[in-house]
Q: What sequence folds into this?
């Protein structure tokens, strides 16, 4: 047994998990359950009453958090301690949205000052581009931006830009490229005019394979349309820490925006990685996004555990994963603009907590990192919600919805809300055999058939969910929502005693991929790997001769 599972608070939860009544009973015996198990902060309202939890459960979960020194770990992160112990780095994405008067020192430097300088530089660039002052090599105004990245350098900017579509200024169009599949960038370049297109390349090293390959293809396309190497500086900018490689590529040094080691890719949209967002929604709205995230940072850092929204959500996720064998967690967004959030939270959580050893290298003997998946309501109700209601797997769910729509057309939004709230109710209460049979009483079916169909209409219920509401989707509330899930992810990793801020599994894939690439372009058949890899490589080579 590991140190965690030997704790009295862990073992108390294990015992308690076997004695909880059905949620129907919990609601019946607690008339004030909704008001007692809901909270609000930073423009968000969280209803966590539809969870397999009593007041005793909450007390035991918070005991585990305290025994795991969660509060001191939160303070360590905000203070800039090197909590990423395998890479000896601080974890300070929170500094990217800190106010200008904040002082956070890393290696003797106030990094907030550096962040503010970068924000000012971003503001000047956004103004230059959206005002039409920035001209392409033929003197034409830029109309389209192609953002090239991978992982967090791609997913964050794309999904936030998509979510904030109502706030686009209309000055620019933005296109996102990540996949190294040549089809991706080929389709993006179709219809674009090189004279009015600007490329934003995001890569800390300026050498990430997929990003560099796509950027080189973009450059070849640009030059093939009549531009010269000297024109590259007017159509390519970079977010990178490798200034020499970027300038060698042809990017003007003044158009290179910095990245820092204390920001992981999946936490980087708040930095210059978010430049495409700022170009689409303007710097004022981008700063509102940062302000919303900072508000959640303050809530997380300063609110007692019992009322702390990220802590509550993180502890519930751990509760189901470790004590009910829940292998996945579904995120359901009842807003079309938020349809990309499940994919964003998927990377955030799974890349952070998909670990199997503790901070000191000991193998874990408990589940970490659930599979995160999901989609937008109400589409999923006609697909995978069937499994949520009647499948054998326990899948905790988060429902996210704004109370007011940006597009209040007819009865659409009230129907959307009715579906959202109806789904959480159905997951909680289910339907008994007697209830199903009573519904069939008035049908023309025979008694035997009624009995059979009633069995198929039974839903066990007791399926947990959280509901997150906001008055309206704005840059500020979106910033708070994303920061909520960032800190929720941290809470789980802190309890599990794992490093949520490295990603060696990703690194191994890159390393082996480069090795395979060398063999794919070699002149002789592959022979040195396993038989499957050798066979696949040789088939590819034969098919591409």
A:
């Amino acid at each position: 047994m590991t140190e965690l599972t030997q704790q009295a608070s862990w073992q108390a939860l294990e015992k308690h998990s076997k004695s909880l009544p059905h949620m129907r009973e919990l609601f019946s015996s607690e008339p004030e359950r909704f008001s007692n198990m809901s909270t609000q902060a930073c423009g968000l309202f969280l209803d966590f009453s539809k969870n397999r939890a009593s007041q005793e459960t909450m007390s035991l979960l918070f005991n585990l958090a305290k025994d795991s020194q969660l509060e001191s770990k939160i303070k360590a992160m905000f203070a800039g301690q090197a909590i990423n112990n395998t890479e000896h780095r601080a974890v300070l994405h929170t500094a990217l949205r800190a106010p200008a008067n904040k002082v956070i020192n890393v290696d003797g430097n106030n990094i907030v000052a550096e962040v503010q300088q970068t924000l000012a530089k971003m503001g000047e660039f956004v103004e230059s581009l959206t005002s039409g002052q920035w001209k392409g090599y033929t003197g034409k105004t830029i109309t389209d931006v192609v953002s090239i990245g991978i992982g967090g350098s791609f997913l964050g900017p794309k999904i936030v830009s998509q979510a904030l579509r109502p706030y686009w200024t209309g000055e620019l169009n933005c296109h996102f490229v990540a996949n190294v599949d040549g089809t991706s960038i080929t389709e993006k370049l179709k219809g674009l005019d090189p004279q009015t297109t600007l490329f934003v390349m995001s890569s800390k090293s300026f050498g990430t394979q997929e990003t560099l390959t796509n950027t080189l293809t973009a450059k070849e396309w640009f030059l093939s349309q009549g531009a010269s190497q000297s024109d590259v500086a007017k159509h390519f900018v970079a977010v990178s820490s490798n200034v020499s490689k970027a300038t060698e590529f042809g990017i003007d040094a003044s158009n290179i925006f910095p990245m820092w080691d204390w920001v992981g890719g999946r936490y980087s949209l708040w930095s210059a990685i978010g430049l495409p967002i700022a170009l689409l929604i303007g710097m004022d709205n981008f700063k509102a996004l940062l302000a919303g995230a900072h508000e959640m940072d303050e809530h997380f850092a300063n609110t007692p555990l019992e009322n702390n929204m990220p802590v509550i959500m993180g502890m519930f996720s751990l509760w189901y994963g470790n004590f009910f064998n829940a292998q996945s967690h579904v995120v359901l967004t009842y807003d079309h603009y938020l349809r990309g959030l499940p994919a964003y939270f998927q990377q955030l959580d799974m890349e952070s907590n998909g670990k199997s050893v503790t901070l000191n290298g000991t193998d874990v003997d408990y589940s970490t990192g659930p599979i995160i998946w999901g989609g937008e309501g109400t589409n999923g109700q006609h697909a995978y919600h069937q499994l949520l209601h009647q499948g054998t797997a326990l899948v905790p769910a988060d429902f996210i919805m704004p109370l007011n729509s940006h597009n209040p057309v007819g009865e659409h939004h009230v129907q959307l809300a009715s579906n959202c709230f109806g789904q959480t109710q159905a997951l909680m209460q289910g339907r008994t055999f007697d209830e199903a049979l009573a519904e069939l009483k008035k049908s023309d079916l025979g008694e035997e058939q009624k009995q059979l169909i009633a069995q198929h209409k039974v839903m066990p219920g007791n399926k947990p969910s959280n509901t997150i509401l906001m008055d309206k989707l704005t840059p500020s509330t979106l910033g708070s929502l994303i920061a909520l899930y960032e800190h929720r992810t941290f809470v789980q990793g802190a309890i599990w005693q794992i490093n949520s801020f490295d990603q060696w599994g990703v690194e191994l894939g890159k390393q082996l991929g480069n090795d395979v690439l060398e063999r794919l372009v070699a002149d002789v058949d592959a022979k040195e790997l396993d038989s499957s890899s050798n066979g696949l490589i040789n088939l590819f080579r034969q098919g591409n001769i």
About this structure: The radius of gyration is 26 Å.
